[in-house]
Design brief:
The chain has twelve helices and twelve strands. It has about 350 residues and is an alpha/beta fold. The protein folds into two domains: about 200 residues, Isopropylmalate Dehydrogenase (3-Layer(aba) Sandwich), CATH 3.40.718; about 130 residues, Isopropylmalate Dehydrogenase, CATH 3.40.718.10. The strands form two sheets. A ten-stranded mixed β-sheet has the order 2-1-3-12-11-4-5-10-8-9, sandwiched between helices. It has a two-stranded antiparallel sheet with strand order 6-7. Helix 6 packs across helix 7. The longest helix is centred in the N-terminal third of the chain and has 19 residues. The two termini are about 20 Å apart. 3-isopropylmalic acid (IPM) binds next to helix 4. Keywords: Amino-acid biosynthesis, Branched-chain amino acid biosynthesis, Cytoplasm, Leucine biosynthesis, Magnesium, Manganese, Metal-binding, NAD, Oxidoreductase.
């Protein structure tokens, strides 16, 4: 089959890690007889420099038409002036909103070979397997913003329909796993969280086979570190999900390891590692490409229904995490290219 993939490398390490993931797609194409037609487009700071806009119309149009979109990362010090009129991150938010990819899936597992990198004791990491479902197109990120002379506001707004669609998705995903759903909110303080909680309670009646618990976000931040193996599917609003998943990445050993899939109702979907442009290591060829390569695996599975191909990529990554080489963020010395080469070799040695 022939598939059209739009890549949005973006800024900092974004181009480095997305190039690695594209190589993996091409290797999969050779082995399984697919053609991945790659259409590279601008987003973020790179797009601002070239066009003045963080998400040029051509990039959005290509993304809409594609079979799937793979993004590196956006942002960096060059574009971070608080007075700046246009910011790289606006491009990413506009893309998520335009594609209506409201459910951001962020799976987290702890690879046994990396458990010692985690600040947590090894025994606490046994059996950790969490699927975060982060609401991605509502809340504070998209509410009205106001800046006065000496004040600023960010409105947090959710409609019941926005909550319902992402929570339903989380219930459905829980059904395919261990049938346990943790909904995270701040219902003791926030009105949006009270709407969130009552919506989850209402929907729970339709999923009697799924055990539901509610957890306030502050204690959840603690419980993720003290009892991470208790959790199966965790659903939460946009900002809480952003913060909790970076925290949870520490369990796995590095932010550079975690992939994500952003899905909506239609065929549009966006795949990106959860990390940012990592300006502190950009341009050095040392970024960990694993989070982006695993995002490409999610792309194969969710957008192209290529399950065997997705599993082949995951198996190859698993092999490299077991045997090395490892990039610096996970205690090794390998550069991005060495890790990529090892993944490609593991893929070739796999007989499917
Ligand atoms: N999806 C995105 O595009 C995205 C996500 C998060 C942050 N950002 C942007 O990235 C910029 C930097 O933000 P930040 O520093 O808070 O977060 P960051 O995720 O870029 O980096 C945090 C830390 O993790 C390390 N790290 C991240 N990815 C890595 C990788 N692949 N391999 C090895 N180490 C890695 C970095 O070196 C850094 O020490 C900001 O402009 C922010 O807005 C973009
Ligand atoms: C870059 C930023 C807008 C983004 C977010 O907050 O959603 C990032 O942190 C992420 O987790 O994808
Ligand atoms: Mg984030």
């Amino acid at each position: 089959m022939n598939y059209r993939i739009v890549t949005l490398p973006g800024d900092g390490v974004g181009p480095e890690v997305s190039a690695a993931a594209v190589e993996v797609l091409h290797e999969i194409g050779r082995q399984f007889g697919h053609q991945f037609q790659i259409d590279e487009q601008l987003i973020g700071g790179a797009a601002i420099d070239a066009t003045g806009q963080a998400l040029p119309e051509a990039s959005l149009e290509a993304a809409r038409q594609a079979d799937a979109v793979l993004l590196g990362a956006v942002g960096g010090p060059k574009w971070s002036d608080p007075q700046a009129k246009v910011r790289p991150e606006q491009g990413l938010l506009a893309l998520r909103a335009a594609l209506q990819v409201y459910a951001n899936l962020r799976p987290l597992q702890v690879h046994p070979a990396l458990a010692e990198l985690s600040p947590l004791k090894n025994e606490r990491l046994q059996g950790v397997d969490i699927l975060f479902v982060r609401e991605l197109t509502g809340g504070t990120y998209f509410g009205a913003k106001q800046r006065g002379k000496d004040f600023a506001t960010d409105e947090c707004r959710y409609t019941e329909a926005e909550i319902e669609r992402v929570v339903r998705r989380a219930f459905e995903l829980a059904r395919g796993r261990r049938r346990h759903l943790t909904s995270v909110d701040k219902a003791n303080v926030l009105e949006t969280s009270r709407l969130w909680r009552s919506t989850v309670q209402r929907l729970a009646g339709e999923y009697p086979d799924v055990v539901v618990e509610h957890q306030l976000v502050d204690s959840m931040a603690m419980l993720l570190l003290t009892q991470p193996s208790r959790y199966d599917v965790v659903v939460t609003e946009n900002l809480f999900g952003d913060i909790l998943t970076d925290e949870a990445a520490a369990l796995a050993g590095s932010l550079g390891l975690l992939p994500s899939a952003s899905l909506g109702e239609g065929r549009n979907a966006l795949y990106e590692p959860i990390h940012g442009s990592a300006p502190d290591i950009a341009g050095q060829g040392i970024a960990n490409p694993v989070g982006t390569i695993l995002s490409a695996a999610l792309l194969l599975r969710h957008s192209l229904q290529l399950d065997a191909e997705a599993s082949a990529v995951e198996k190859a990554v698993d092999h490299v995490l077991s045997k090395g080489p490892h990039s610096r963020d996970i205690g090794g010395e390998a550069g991005t290219d060495e890790v990529l080469t090892a993944v490609l070799k593991a893929l070739r040695n796999n007989r499917h």
